[in-house]
# Entry
Amino acid sequence: MIHTMPEGGKPGYALVTAAYNEEKFIQRTIESIVDQTVPPQKWIIVSDGSTDRTDEIVETYARQCGFVELYRITEEHPRNFTAQVNAINAGFARLRASGWHFIGNLDSDITLDPDYFEKLLERFSKDPGLGVAGGFIYEEENGNFVNRRSNSIDSVAHGVQLFRRECLEALGGYTPFSWGGSDSHAVVRARMNGWRAESVSELKAFHHRPTGGGFGGLRYQYKGGQMDFYLGTHPVFEMFRMARRFRSKPYVIGPIARLAGFAWGYVSGQRRQASPEFIRFFRAEQMNKLRALWTWRSANPRMSKRSEP
# Structure
C-alpha cells in the first residue's frame, strides 16, 4: 500500500470522533485540532443522531478546513457505550481504504496543546514497536487542570488513543461491551499481538467534562466494577486497585460502589464478555504488576507512596 505523506515527509494521521449532542464542547475540540502544528490529513466527526447544534458547528469547520468531514448516523438506537463504540468503528471503516500511517480516536470534549500530535508522531517514529499511544488526561479541579490519578504510562486513555495502522487493522477496531472497557481491551489486545502501548506523561490532554459526569458518580463507579468483572480483572488486583482509590473522590463510597459492582458479577453469575485467552493474558499482566510493585516497595521502604512505579 502507498502511504500518503504530509509536507515535510512526516507520516500522516487521521482521526475519528464520535459526537452526540456535543455543542457545549466540540467547538473547542475542533479549534484545538485546527491549531495543531501537524494537523490530521483527515478527521471524521461522526454525529450519532445529534439533535442540538453539533452538526451545524462541525459543518461550519468542514467548509473552512479540508480535512474535517461530518458523517451522520440517523438510525434509532439506544444511547450507551456500545453506541459510541459503533460510531467510532463506523468512522474507522470510512478510513479503511486510506493510506495514512496512524489512525486515532479523539473524544469530543478534549483539547490539546498545539504541538501535541507533532510530539506524539515523533514518539512513534523513534519506536517501531509502539502500537498505540496518547497523552495523560488532565481534568479540572478547583479551577485548575490536574493530572488524573488513574493515568498510567502503560494504559492509554480512550479519548486520545492513536494507533499505528497495522496495530489497529489487527484489532479490527474496537470491541463493543455493555458498559465501556473497549479502550482497555484494545490496549491489552495490542500487547497480546506484540505491540507496545504507552501514555506519554509530558503530553497533556485536557478533559473538559468530568469522567462519568453524564451517568452520576456512584452509578458510574458501580457499573465500572461490573466492567472490571466482565473483562476478567483478577480479584486480588481489583482489591488492591480499590484500596488505592480510597484516596480519590468520592473517597470511601466510590471504591465501595465499584467493589459492589465487581462482586455482583460473581453473585449474579454474569457471563464474562472477554475471551478466555484475553482474560488469561490480562490477569497475568496484573499479577506481574503486583509482584513488581511488591519487589520495588520492599527495596525502597522509606520512599513515599507517590513515588511508586
Notes: Strands lie at 13-19, 42-48, 68-73, 102-105, 110-112, 130-141, 144-147, 162-164, 196-207. Residues 276-299 form the longest helix (24 residues). The CA atoms of residues 39 and 141 lie 29 Å apart.
